[in-house]
Every structure is written in C-alpha cells, then in structure tokens.
Amino acid sequence: MPYLKTYDLFISHSWKYGDDYDRIVNLLKNADYFKWRNYSCPEHDPAIDSATDFGKNQLVKALKNQIRPVNCVIILAGLYVSYSYWIKEEIDISVEFGKPIIGVLPWGSSKIPQYVASNAIEVVGWNTSSILDAVRKNSL
C-alpha cells in the first residue's frame, strides 16, 4: 500500500505516565505504510510551567496551537485520564476545534474513562492495525 497521506496527530498524554506515550509513538513510527507528524509535546520537552496562572494560560494557548492543525487526536485512555486536568483540557480543545478523537484503551484493559468515551468518535484497543484503521477512517 503506498503512502497516500501524511497524518498530523496530537497524542494526549500525562507526563506522569510517559511510558504509554513512548510506546504509542514507537508503534506509529514503526507502522508500515503510515506517515505521520507528531504535534504533541513530550515530557523531555515541556512547553511551559503550569504551576502558575500565567503558565496555565500559556499552556492552554500552546495546546490550542498544537491541536489546531491536526487531522486527529489520539487519547491514551488509561484511568489516570479521570484525574488529569490537562488531558480533559486537551479533549475540550479538540472538541472546540472539531477534531476527531480516538480513544486507545490501555493494553489488556476494557475500561475507559467516561469523559473519553463520551467525546471519542471511536475507541480502539492497543493494537497497531486498530489504531491505524481508526486514524485513517476518522481523520480530517
């Protein structure tokens, strides 16, 4: 299958759970016939200190700039999402911009936080073909 499109993706993540983020980035990087650009801000390159009101406002602005151009948003839907202010903020920004959201269940899990389930266009398991199919099918 030839490359037909380069997908611009934002992968939501919690810096406290960076291993899942690293695993999905590697999964996408190693996928055959799938070209993409990463619009996320990984742990080793945090944009702004969110401990202050100014920092929070700057981070929301930065997130909007990261999410605005993407074709799709991938939410790593571990139960920690239920407790993460920033992942909820990323979902809200995605909804605001009309970006399709794909929820990815953690490996071996069947539970997904309600906030992800109610905002995702599709929820898939931690499986390369399921994730790629969902991105191809739902991306703008």
Which descriptors apply to this entry?
Rossmann fold, 140 residues, 40% helix, alpha/beta, 16% strand
Structure commentary:
- It is a single chain.
- Strand 4, helix 4 and strand 5 form a beta-alpha-beta unit.
- A five-stranded parallel β-sheet has the order 2-1-3-4-5, sandwiched between helices.
- The radius of gyration is 14 Å and the shape is globular.
- The mean pLDDT is 87.
- With 140 residues, it is an alpha/beta fold.
- Helix 2 packs across helix 3.
- The longest helix has 15 residues.
- The chain has a single domain, classed as 3-Layer(aba) Sandwich (Rossmann fold), CATH 3.40.50.
Note the topology:
Elements: E1 6-12, H1 18-29, E2 35-38, H2 53-67, E3 72-76, H3 85-96, E4 101-104, H4 114-119, E5 122-124, H5 128-138
Parallel strand pairs: 1-2, 1-3, 3-4, 4-5
Summarize the structure.
The protein is an alpha/beta fold and 140 residues long. It has helices spanning 18-29, 53-67, 85-96, 114-119, 128-138, and strands at residues 6-12, 35-38, 72-76, 101-104, 122-124.
